[in-house]
Design a protein that fits this description.
The protein is of the alpha/beta class and 334 residues long. It has helices at residues 6-13, 17-24, 32-45, 51-58, 74-87, 103-115, 132-140, 165-178, 194-209, 226-238, 251-263, 297-313; strands at 63-68, 93-98, 120-123, 145-148, 159-163, 184-188, 218-220, 245-248, 273-278, 291-294, 321-324, 327-329. Helix 8 (165-178) packs parallel to helix 9 (194-209). Keywords: DNA-binding, Transcription, Transcription regulation.
């Protein structure tokens, strides 16, 4: 069956092709009656728009890039839901890529977004400094970049949606201290991302305040999977380092640690309390349920989408930072 074109609509309605095009693009210069007539005819005849052609006329692709380290856990997918809440009703499409925590793959994903001529890119980076040059190049070329959760080095002027990682980490660690825990492990995320450093700084500050900081209880990881959490605890046990609680950089690290301890017949929280940072749905899908700093992920996505729309409308607007609150949710693991 032959594809219905704008010319077919033009002939059917006795309107010019330019009027048809503008109506399909929701041009404000086309009156509502004509626009409705065009859309009704398009539906009746089975017209499917040639999006590339329409985008060339409008100067926009009506697509947004979404670049994240992973889509395995609910973290990125929940942020994406917030982005969709804002952008889908406006007719935008979203192109999703994941970097697998690899800066080289992230770089290729960003170049792919440029090839697709996206109107903006919303990104959660995988390394604080390694791709700063391409971030700057993309912005210099006129495509807005909006960062959330993990942000680039402060030398880059960018719009971003963030949490006060240091303060929230401090509050969670202080909560553990108030539950009579004194030997608190921190399973740290990779030091190449800023919020890992911010969270360990918050952890250290509170322990030093109570004069119970022990550097042997900070375990550095080079990844954030369940297996990395398991390895971190295994390392402590192999060194016979005593601890009564764990504060992990992420839910996945905390769950990997908790599962391994349970395999070793360690009682949680009686012998070891466990808390994390992220607050994804995963924290309620384990037993015992996980105490966590719960970030407003869907609202973060909505805020990032709003920042993207601002920049699409006027890329000369100054960059904005949106600081969102996070809630400490206490569950059975502590």
């Amino acid at each position: 069956m032959r594809r219905i074109t704008i010319k077919d609509l033009s002939k059917f309605l006795s309107l010019s092709t330019s009027t048809i095009s503008r109506a399909l693009l929701h041009d404000k210069n086309v009156n509502e009656e004509t626009r409705k007539k065009v859309l009704d005819a398009a539906e009746k005849l089975g017209y499917k728009p040639n999006l590339t052609a329409l985008n060339l006329q409008s100067g926009q692709s009506r697509t947004i890039g979404f670049v994240v380290p992973e889509m395995i856990t609910p973290f990125s997918s929940t942020v994406l839901k917030g982005i969709q809440n804002i952008l889908y009703p406006l007719g935008y499409r979203i192109i999703i890529t994941q970097s697998d925590e690899d800066p080289l793959i992230e770089r290729k994903n960003l170049q792919l977004m440029e090839e697709f001529n996206v109107d903006a890119i919303i990104i959660n980076l995988c390394h604080e400094t390694q791709n700063n040059d391409i971030y700057q190049k993309i912005m210099d070329n006129g495509t807005p970049l909006i960062f959330f959760d993990r942000i680039p080095h402060k030398s880059l002027d960018v719009s971003k949606v963030i949490i006060d990682d240091s303060i929230k980490a401090s509050l969670m660690v202080e909560y553990l201290i108030k539950t009579k825990r004194k030997k608190i492990v921190h399973i740290m995320g990779p030091s190449t991302i800023r919020n890992a450093v911010e969270r360990v700084n918050g952890y250290k500050r509170i322990l030093m305040k109570y004069n119970i900081f022990d550097e042997n209880l900070v375990v550095q990881t080079d990844g954030m999977t369940f297996e990395h959490g398991k390895k971190a605890v295994k390392q402590l046990l192999n060194k016979n380092i005593e601890f009564d609680s764990i504060f992990a950089f992420s839910d996945t690290l905390a769950m990997g640690a908790m599962n391994f301890l349970l395999e070793q017949k360690v009682r949680i929280p009686e012998e070891v309390a466990i808390a994390s940072f992220s607050g994804t749905e995963l924290s309620t899908m384990v037993y015992p349920q996980l105490t966590s700093v719960q970030q407003p992920l869907e609202k973060m996505g909505e805020a990032a989408a709003e920042l993207a729309l601002e920049k699409i409308k006027n890329n000369m607007l100054p960059s904005r930072s949106i600081l969102m609150d996070a809630e400490l949710v206490y569950r059975a693991s502590t």
